[in-house]
Amino acid sequence: MHKIAVFLKPYKKEVTIGPIFKLLEAILELLLPTIVALIINNGIGKQDSAYVYRMGSLMVLMAILGFGCSMVCQYYAARASQGFGTSLRNTMFKHISSLSYAELDIIGTPSLINRITNDVNQLQVAVAMLIRLVIRAPFICIGAIIMAMILDFRLSLILIAATPVFGVILYFIITRSSPMYRKYQGKLDRLALVLSENLSGIRVIRAFAESRREKQRFNEASEDLTQTAIRVGRISAWLGPMTTLVVNTAIIAILWVGGIHIEAGGLSQGEIIAFINYVTQILLALIVVSNLVILFTKASSSANRINEVLAMTASVAEVPADAPAVKRDDAAPVISFRNVSFGYNTTGERALENISVDIQRGQTVGLIGSTGSGKTTFVNLIPRFYDAVEGEIRVEGVNVRDYRLEQLRSRIGIVPQKAVLFTGTIADNIRWGKASATRDEMMSAAAVAQAEEFITRLPEGLDTLVARGGHNLSGGQKQRLTIARAVVGRPPILILDDSSSALDFATDAALRRALNENSGEMTVLLVSQRVSTVKQADQIIVFDEGRIAGIGSHRELLESCGVYQEICMSQLSSEEAVQ
Ligand SMILES: Nc1ncnc2c1ncn2[C@@H]1O[C@H](COP(=O)(O)OP(=O)(O)OP(=O)(O)O)[C@@H](O)[C@H]1O
């Protein structure tokens, strides 16, 4: 919790002034039963109506003052809690953006969304309650006990005796509900995961007529969450009735003993009514305390989940700001892997094992291999989306770990397997690759990516709006735009990770021809499962179960590499293979 408390630092004024006004309100509230006692004893008892009016007016004034104090506190509580929530959310967002893929893989997107929304909201409410009620409720309890002691010490012993009973109930409920809240939040994450998979994959689900199964999966996750909520609710629900039971038992005892006192002449009627009022105040305050306990138990579990995110450090570390500028070596291979091995944290298995390869400037290199053989993992290590576990990777002669991340990534244009577009116009999307790109530059990038024709056919051309997730474009059109986006900045290294899978063979061939003609000094890495895509490359790297099974031209590999021969045989006729 204390790490998160720093976000309250800018709101010291609000956190101090708010409770002070709430205390003023509480003091006024505590005086009311005594005034009522005075009215009963001196006003009603002695038939002095002037006294009743005077004291009644005083009570109204005190109520108005109390209301004013409460409003001031409410204002400060809202300012502090909203400000706290906003800066916590912003910090989390900035921190999450700085994390590497490895950390994001561990927590997962649905859980991160829950933590940045639900959990922060939970803490926001806790901060507001902290200011409004955390001091007030115990103050009212203790204050009411003291006032009751002043009225009649012996009667107040009944109240003091009830305190440890309440303490035991509180302890029992906190220790049992706290671990359940953590479970509850885990299940909320699970529900969010199922929901996000369903919403993003809704077309696939319908296409496979799997709606019923998915509904069942959602219902199961929802039912699981409900059961946990009911279990935790069942425990917390004891708190209110048990508190009421303890306090009401105390009231009965007070009436019993108080009655004997009145008969004996030791206590006036006004005093016994004031006493009961104080006990009622204690009861209400204790119910507030019980609710606060539940709220803070939830908030502490949310705080742990937020701290978990904030405590994560990016495994792909940025170089220190004062590190010397890197000196690229034009004569060195543009990409060089030396004995590189890598495994994903989540699986513990090696996805790449002892990879060594040099790629020369201006080359077009094909990367081929069966699914899961490590091609994407290989290209993801070049812009440092992940860091190699062993070995060294150099880009233009410099170890990738010595570059500033932004500088390294500005040398590389990458087209990921899954075409991701953002809401905005087509031009906005292409400009992600070069913010200052002119319309001509965008159109020539589109021409290379074979997107020019479909863009010019659109009524608004480059200014056509791309719907959320690019839903108003076909799979092939989306892929072509992501290629144009990567090409527009003319990066020295261009990586196309299976980026032509949604293109027909003719467009795929035209794309490769255009890349060839326009690439100049650009080094192009073509990841594909299609032999026809990589066949003409200067060099082909064949992956097999995380290892390199062969490197060479199509002809060389056909003669020397068994894995490549197998891939060719499965895709090409024997004539095509030797062409
Ligand atoms: N984020 C990840 N977390 C854990 N394991 C992963 C992750 N991404 C890939 N893997 C695993 O690493 C291995 C290599 O995967 P990779 O994506 O590099 O294969 P690929 O050759 O590109 O396959 P494809 O052609 O199907 O894209 C596979 O066993 C895969 O299951």
Automatic annotation (TrEMBL):
Matching CDD domains: ABC_6TM_Tm287_like
Statement: the UniProt record of this protein carries the keyword DNA repair: no
Entry's localization field: Cell membrane
Domain of life: Bacteria
Broad class of the protein's primary localization: membrane
Transmembrane segments: 20-40, 52-77, 133-151, 157-174, 237-260, 272-296
Bilayer topology annotation: Multi-pass membrane protein
Coiled coil: none
Domain ABC transporter as annotated: residue spans: 335-570
Keywords: ATP-binding, Membrane, Nucleotide-binding, Transmembrane, Transmembrane helix
Short name of one Pfam family: ABC_tran
Domain ABC transmembrane type-1: 17-298
PROSITE patterns cross-referenced by the UniProt entry: ABC_TM1F, ABC_TRANSPORTER_1, ABC_TRANSPORTER_2
One GO MF term attached to the UniProt entry: ATP binding
Signal sequence coordinates: none
Keyword Transmembrane in annotation: yes
Listed name of the protein: ABC transporter ATP-binding protein
